[in-house]
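User: Just a sanity check before I run the rest of the batch. Below are the structure tokens for the first item. I only need the designed sequence back.
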């Protein structure tokens, strides 16, 4: 019987592990298919406290894992959870399998579960996107994280909702020009967000257009995007050095029953207000899997800390 099983890594999962391990709870971390989470796809991280010169995303996640393991956390790489069952005795059964060998089934018993499985940014599904993201070659889904790397160069934002309008406005602090590419002839964003973006002289909308490909320079960095007009089918290229995806995120919650944890219409886990606890005592949610607002490494880490403290308190009460 485990004290704490942490599903997922990233800043939320690893911080929860650090705190749980230091509380002598010997947490078990199940990493899933992407150890380290979204930050492993980011190159330079300059806004995480404690690293004045910045740090590579994978290195930051490695350091967090090492810190958790130093205090006694255990990590099982490549183990993906498929189900969490609430048992009659208030404990939990966690069913999983090896991502490299799905027939290799695993079953765990635990007193508490911290779900830190994160969310995945939506991309267009075009060839080469994964490599462009991993190499930091001009494709990203976080203006707050990466905007400062695109000073005085043209960039584009793909999307038409509030996130796209907000990211476009934010990027005007750095970029020489921000093209806002949308498949329709008006934004879906709220009127105030849309008006603010379009009123900025650096923002230029590109209506009725979809991105069909990326044009790379000799260093395999983005130098333009290929566009196709959704009305007349004409094709063109737009010179940009950075492409910011703003078409939403998908929370990694497919393995969680709604009977166990309430979810919103998009699948994000719903926490008890002011806590990381969910409607099921002993189940906690931390980080991007429950965060529809901030989606930052530091806020995820904060929730991981809170989830661990709440789990520790829950176990203490459970044991009398």
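Assistant: Here's the designed sequence for the first item:
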């Amino acid at each position: 019987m485990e004290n704490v099983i942490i599903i997922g890594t990233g800043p939320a999962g690893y911080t929860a592990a650090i705190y749980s391990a230091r509380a002598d709870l010997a947490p078990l971390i199940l990493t899933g298919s992407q150890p380290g989470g979204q930050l492993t796809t980011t190159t330079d991280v300059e806004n995480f406290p404690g690293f004045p010169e910045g740090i590579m995303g994978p290195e930051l996640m490695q350091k967090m894992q090492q810190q958790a393991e130093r205090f006694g956390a255990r990590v099982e790489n490549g183990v993906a959870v498929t189900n969490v069952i609430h048992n009659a005795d208030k404990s939990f059964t966690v069913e999983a399998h090896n991502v490299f060998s799905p027939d290799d089934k695993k079953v765990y018993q635990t007193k508490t579960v911290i779900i830190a499985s994160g969310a995945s940014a939506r991309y267009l599904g075009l060839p080469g996107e994964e490599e462009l993201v991993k190499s930091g070659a001009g494709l990203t889904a976080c203006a707050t994280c990466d905007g400062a790397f695109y000073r005085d160069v043209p960039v584009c934002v793909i999307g038409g909702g509030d996130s796209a309008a907000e990211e476009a406005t934010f990027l005007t602090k750095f970029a020489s020009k921000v093209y806002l590419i949308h498949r329709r002839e008006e934004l879906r964003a709220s009127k105030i967000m849309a008006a603010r973006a379009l009123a900025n002289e650096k923002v230029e909308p590109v209506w009725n257009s979809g991105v069909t490909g990326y044009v790379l320079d000799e260093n395999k960095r983005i130098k333009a995007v290929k566009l196709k007009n959704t009305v007349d089918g004409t094709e063109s290229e737009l010179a940009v050095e950075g492409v910011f995806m703003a078409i939403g995120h998908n929370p990694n919650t497919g393995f969680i029953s709604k009977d166990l944890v309430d979810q919103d219409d998009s699948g994000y886990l719903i926490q008890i207000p002011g806590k990381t606890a969910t409607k099921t005592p002993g189940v906690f949610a931390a980080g991007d899997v429950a965060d529809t607002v901030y989606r930052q490494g530091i806020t995820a880490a904060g929730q991981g800390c809170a989830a661990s403290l709440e789990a520790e308190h829950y176990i203490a009460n459970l044991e009398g």
